[in-house]
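quick one, two chains, predict together pls
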Amino acid sequence: MRFCATWLFLSFVLSLLPANAANGNHWAFEAISDPVIPTVAGQLRESPIDSLVVNRLQSENLELSPEAPPEVLFRRLHLDLVGLLPSPEKLNRFLADWQRDPEAAYAAAVDELLESPHFGEHWARHWLDLARYGDSDGYLGDTLRPWAWVYRDWVIDAINRDQPFDQFSIEQLAGDLLPDATQEQKIAVGFHRNNLKNTEAGADRELDRTQQVVNRVATTGTVWMGLTVACAECHDHKHDPISQKEFFELYAFFNNMQDSDISVRFEEEWTAYEKKRKIWEKELEKLERGLASYTLPPGNPGSPVGNWKILSPDKVEAAGTDLEIRKDGSILATGKTPTTVTYFVEAPVERSETITAFKLEVRGAFGKGREKGVPVGRGNDGEFILSMFFPDLIIDGKAKRLPIVSAKATHSDGQDVAETFQPSNEGWRIASKTYEDHAILFELAEPIALPKGSRLKFSLGQKSGTGNLMRHFQISTSADPPPFQLPADKVDPKWAVLRLPIEKHLANPPGKPQSKAQSFLELSGSDRRETFIHVRGDYTREGEQVTPGTLAVLPAMPGKEHRNRLDFARWLFEPDHPLTARVAANRIWQHLFGEGIVRTSDDFGTHGDPPSHPELLDWLAKEFQGSGWSRKALIRKIVLSSTYRQASTNRHPDLPNTLLWRQNSFRVPAETVRDIHLVASGLFEPKIGGPGVHPPLPDHVAAVGRSVKWPESTGPDRYRRGMYIFLKRTVLYPMLTTFDAPDTSVACSRREKTNTPMQALTLLNDPVFYECAETLGREIYTTHRADTESAIDALYLRCLNRLPKDSERDTLLSAHDDFQSHGKDPQLAMIATARVVMNLDEFISRD
Amino acid sequence: MNLSAVIDPAQFQEMVSRRRFLSNGIGSLALASMLRDDGLLASESTRTPHFAPKAKRCIYLFMEGGPSQMDLFDPKPKLNELDGQPMPDSLLEGVKFAFTQKESARLLGSPRTFRKYGDCGMEMSDLLPHLSRHADDIALIRSMYCDQFNHLPGQLLMLTGTPFRGWPTLGSWLNYGLGSPSRDLPGYVAMTTLGRGLPGGAASWSSGFLPSSYSGALFRNEGSPVLNLANPDTISPEMQRRTIEAVNDLNRQRYSQTQNPEIASRIKNYELAYRMQSAAPELIDLSDEPDSLKEAYGLNRRDKTGFEASFARNCLLARRLVERGTRFVTLFLSTWDQHSKLDSELATNTRISDQPIAALLQDLKDRGLLDETLVVWGGEFGRTPLGENRSGFKTVTGRDHHPYSFSLWMAGGGVKGGQTIGRTDEIGWGVEEDPVHVHDLHATILHLFGFDHEELTYRFQGRDFRLTDVHGKVVEKLFA
């Protein structure tokens, strides 16, 4: 019927209009006029909106409908401004205020709602339709976009703080190009990161990039100018004055944007992190204090087994690293860690003796607190591999290699210690237990006599891993006969146990915030792309080269040289631009009346609908510009008008409402259908912003896409507003789709408002909605028990914000009695009654 | 305007009377919108066919992934002869592949054996022992081609006429054009038998920019076939009936006060929803189907994945759906994307689908439904005569995506069976005779349903859109 009515009116309007083809004097390309406000007799309020509407109505012998009752107005304001329902208590307060001073009560309600943080959510959702917002790439892979919500939250915030629409727009189109762009501005420009992206293996990347740019140009045209510029991608526009060349001149503005995910710092997140970090630090200190009182047992380094003499080296060297001889004869390596390294250690033989074995000891130590201690090696994680241990005896300057027959070590990780005295890259490897002392024994092939005055020279080498050799070690000799025994294990098992909590704590520090946002980088210098016309829209067929520019039919862009996206964005807000203000004001009107003054809010071109009230549209546009582009101020002006406050009752069923002799009544948007269920039931979780949520979804729905994971949310997240449901493009949340939420492929300027049996099934049986009815019914039953009449009144107040009429109460009482006698369960009967109310057309309608 | 052909007589009578009422001084624009309100169930149609439709229902068997035409429908002895040879350079110029490395690619023959079937002598491979018995019923097009070589763009092109998301699928266009005669089931139903899933997800049956009421409904073949069809556990059928009664009673009271026509639609939709609650479970309850028929479809077959029985069940349900008035049914079977292990996986796919599809054709025929039910079988593109030598593949056992030629068949619904249309070159690379683009296929299908594809349009964002965009040529040869 709605269509029918509009068509009737349209054919009438069209007959009055001069046929203006694409010759440049199409109304939308003309300057915005400063309309004369007619004087109209008997006006209730001082409002140019009313004057213009009433004047037009009077010319058709029509008049405004009476004002809607206060409870209807209050509900209407809530649904239009915040997309939620008022509580019965709030309604009562409003009605009491209304009794005293209706005008003041109404204005106060408007102001309160405009200041509600939920206002930004509801109006952000309208904007997100235009931004084709989604939480995944779309197409085959449909890769998730884990940071898309950062942009979504920016929109909510910008609308809540009533950021002027010109700035709001400029930042989204070119925030990255603003001088000293702030983090917020770089997030805002993520508007154009919301288009689909094809990452399918084997796809033509350049084709996809081209399609993304085309989408960005088309979206920009639709959103800010109400023009279908994309029609000109392949050829000159059929009916609007847009040539293919002009399309690619617009394209050139957007042809050098490169996707860039930027790190962002949210103070809230960092405050929370620092708080956590402090608590963690305190806990760590406590653990450290606990350990401080523990005394490590003696024997570190462990008691020797057998008779060993520590050598006293007098010469050490290693290429690329520093070796230092300590007083106790041990050697400490410091400085750089070259890729491969060999330590040369020489020690004088002070008196003659015969030796049978060498012992190499490496030193490590546990930390007492958060420091893990001192590792044995200098490789990664304190590791070392000794792949070469070659002792030489030097007599009179002549060196003789001393053959080794066997080696054994306290511990080695996965390598054979015998490799140490054979040519190989492997050997003695300590990769675990790196904070303990270790030792290796080398048994000589035969006892060796060391004459006094001779020297021992050791080559200790490593061939794999950078600087992967011992840090602190000493070498001893033995004259004992074999067999040789390794030193006893020196690790105190008690200590290891005691240290465990601190190790665990150290392993789990609070994660630093790592939030990102989808932004852009503008290519510069030689990376910049030139733009050519794509012959017939085919990017592989380059036509004439073009430079950035706008449409000839619109006012010229100031300046000539090096125009960029920022110039383009600013040009949209030149005072004489005929489209931007009209298109934006029309959309605001559309959300407050269900239809725009130009019904085709996405098409102001010659094939779009003409405005039903051209002067009113121009007045609104001028008002919007004049108020410094304040969205809230314009909304306030509109909702305070008598035109807005009319009853929606259809007094003339055969007459279309294009001239606005009543308010429109329409079904609320998909997200609001969900939100008001949650509010009326009391389940609603009002949290604003943050990553998307995953309410329960039947398996077979998720199973349709390729490898889709749907990590079901728990707790209050299940009851968040519909706008926070994760928008996985291949698996859109069915309830939202059923109620006409857009599919996020292209900018959606006005949603369909279908009415289908699938919607009925959803409202009746969707587990989420049934849970709402159950919760509401149970609560009402608990508070009202056997007083069914007052229970029904309470249900009406909660869901419809009014009391039932007698006939309605009777219908529900009778249904309730049947539920009761059928189910023999009074609570279930009340649940079923609540379910009836939540299925009423009125519940999901905004009157 | 032959309305009565597609809408039941009582309803037609009602429309005519309203039309008479309306034609008093009100233009035809008004009539169109008034008719919209007379549409049924999910699909409300504003259009009337441009000429007498031959097809009234469609079952589209969508073989996701790109079935290999030279191993099923398009024998290429020369290709077998040249097995292992490089392709002539002239053919490779300007050609794009998803994965194949052009320089080292070699032709890959088919191990299949082909024979002539039916009176018409249509050639089919040994992988189609059941379908080949219906050679005289089907029209085989060997000269399909398209311009997309990736799955999703290709599938979207085949389903919506564009490679982009956001456009209406064929089933949505037909429901938009004709409405649905079904009184208690959706006019457009999609069912799936999925291996690797569907690249487009719900876009594969989306109404795009058409109102969502023309969108396909995803049915499951077991349990509760439609989302939210079953009452909540604690709500008995009796309580549900009483609920809907009370809801509609209260909605009627509101309607009498406000006169808002949307309320009237709401009332009607609650009644329809209630009817669907019994009709949909009845639809998938196969107890009244004879065992012999279930066996013919292959419902009793058991394989590891359960695909054989599932696809058989979907085929039988497709017949039950069209029998009950559903305008358009799409059965998705995925995937035919055989980059490797072509021989064995093709055998698996045909084992799943050959018997049920043949049984469906026979069943429709036996019930006299085939004449007015168009059955379409096909994927989004074909596969290369070259073996796929993607880097990282040790051996060549499959074929890459091939948009330049592929096979598709149709049966029933005004299509002349027993004919083969089009010819590919001797190695099966390009089309040599009667090329049929996807747009031409769409134009032809719309024609079978009584629409001039250039006239069935929808205004969106300032432009009149159509399924075939600015293309499409009806393939007259196909018509009976």
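Residues 267-292 of chain A form the longest helix (26 residues).
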